[in-house]
Amino acid sequence: MDGERRLSFMHLTKLSKIRVITRKVLEPPVNQETRIHDLHEALNVYCRYLVEAVRKRVAGLERVGVIFSGGTDSVTGCKTCR
Predict the structure, then answer these.
(1) Exposure on the CB side of residue 18, measured as CA atoms within 13 A
(2) What's the pTM?
């Protein structure tokens, strides 16, 4: 497709009427001590943070709608809301 390109990992793109600005917004973690040492522990930590993130975003709402992008994140988030 003409004029299209993939957004780089850890980058943000801002669009305006006159230009497109792409900049790096995150740095990969480097030289950090590993605190998770097995799959069971990793899954427990992931689930805890996922539930906490969803709860934070839907707290106090009577109804919640989800738009699926087709990726795993939206499906996982929806299942967590249940």
Answers:
(1) 0
(2) 0.49
